[in-house]
Design brief:
Layout lengths: L3 H28 L1 H5 L10 E5 L5 H11 L5 E5 L3 H11 L7 E4 L5 H14 L4 E5 L5 H11 L4 E4 L16 H19 L5
Parallel strand pairs: 1-2, 1-4, 2-3, 4-5
Helix pairs in contact: 3-4, 5-6
Length: 195
């Protein structure tokens, strides 16, 4: 039997270590959000690009850039209200209308994944590039992987607002703070692990 004093010291040390780990993790998240939140797969060829709603300029511009580079032959625009706007941005950037499919009902990242996956399967896609904002890329990729583990997903985010000099509380900084809350919420509510 371990003496009471020894157990007390062990719990105290374990609690102190846990507190230090929590503080270090919080510090990393606060001071290095680009490194924590961004998932960049690098150059890759895929069957389809999925551009998530929530932005009508930077995300479609990134998707058009990847399309023109030959990274995928089709683009799915997902998001209630955003899909049509993204489609217009893509066609304005020179992407042919015939290369674009719409998923116009999703209102959340989880719905972006759940509602796009049947379209991807109907198209016979096996490899898919996800295009979203850099601070949203970890959760977006995790959602798609969670709901379709049989498909291979890659992240090629937009880097608008990446430099810290472009942050402020009402802009990117607010989105970053909200993203940490959403990552935790998706993990707890839907089992979408961000790691």
């Amino acid at each position: 039997m371990i003496p009471l004093k020894t157990r007390h010291r062990w719990f105290l040390r374990a609690g102190l270590l846990a507190a230090i780990l929590v503080l270090l993790t919080a510090g990393l998240c606060y001071f290095l959000p680009q490194q924590v939140l961004t998932v960049e797969s690098g150059p890759v060829k895929a069957d389809v690009i999925v551009v998530l709603g929530g932005d009508s300029r930077e995300r479609p511009e990134r998707a058009a850039e990847l399309f023109k580079a030959g990274d995928a032959a089709l683009i799915i625009c997902t998001g209630a209200g955003d899909a049509v706007t993204s489609q217009a941005s893509l066609t304005n950037a020179g992407v042919p209308l015939s290369a674009i499919r719409l998923e116009p009902c999703a209102r959340t990242t989880q719905e972006n994944a759940r509602l796009s996956i049947p379209i991807l399967r109907a198209l016979g896609a096996r490899r898919v590039i996800i295009v979203t904002s850099w601070y949203h890329s970890r959760r977006a990729l995790a959602c798609f992987e969670h709901y379709a583990p049989d498909l291979r997903f890659y992240s090629r985010p937009s880097y608008y607002g990446y430099p810290k000099t472009e942050w402020n509380h009402d802009g990117i900084g607010g989105y970053i703070q909200a993203e940490y809350r959403k990552i935790f919420g998706y993990w707890v509510c839907y089992g979408v692990c961000p790691l």
